[in-house]
Design brief:
With 178 residues, the protein is of the alpha+beta class. Helix content is 57%, strand content 28%. It folds into 2 domains: 78 residues; 93 residues, 2-Layer Sandwich (Alpha-Beta Plaits). It has 3 helices and 4 strands; from the N terminus they run ααββαββ. A 4-stranded antiparallel beta sheet has the order 1-2-4-3.
Length: 178
């Protein structure tokens, strides 16, 4: 009788163990996997929302800066080159060269506007000091000028000595208002 009771107890315990394993595999394990997946999804969503929030902050700052730029842009408009003022600019360069007693050869390319810029090439000859003064006046002009290329070379006397004269090759970019 003890053997039968032991077998019944072992059978009952085994049945309960199998039932507990089935409950664990059928309920707890899928539930924990689902909770883990939900937790991972919630974390990914939180990271995504934080990124969107940071992006919205950046956009707000950018909009404020854009408004500041728009208001300050108005003060820059007079300093931008206008295509219809091409003759005025050429006259300005010629007057600047004659003021400094320099000879100037210019080749503007006003018909070719790239990235709101026009390229002007200049070859200037004269006294070294006058060329430096010309450069200073050119940089203080009322236009936004970007010097793309500058080459200053001395001119030599027939006997091979360096003279007081120099040659300046310049390539300028003028910012054009559209």
């Amino acid at each position: 009788m003890k053997l039968e009771l032991t077998k019944k107890i072992i059978g009952t315990v085994s049945l309960l163990a199998v039932l507990a394993l089935a409950i664990f595999l059928g309920i707890f394990y899928p539930t924990t996997r689902y909770i883990k997946k939900t937790s991972d999804d919630a974390y990914a969503l939180r990271v995504h929302l934080e990124q969107k929030y940071q992006q919205s902050l950046k956009n707000r700052i950018t909009r404020k800066k854009l408004e500041e730029i728009k208001t300050s842009y108005v003060s820059f408009i007079p300093h931008l080159f206008k295509i219809e003022d091409d003759l005025k600019y050429i006259n300005y360069l010629d007057k600047l060269a004659s003021t400094h007693k320099l000879t100037q050869d210019s080749t503007p390319n006003f018909g070719n506007i790239v990235n709101n810029q026009v390229v002007v090439s200049l070859n200037i000859s004269g006294a070294y000091k006058n060329i430096l003064e010309y450069m200073a006046d050119l940089e203080s002009a009322d236009y936004f000028i970007n010097i793309k290329y500058a080459r200053l070379t001395p001119l030599f006397e027939p006997n091979g000595e360096v003279s007081n004269l120099a040659n300046l090759s310049l390539t300028l970019e003028l910012y054009v208002s559209s």
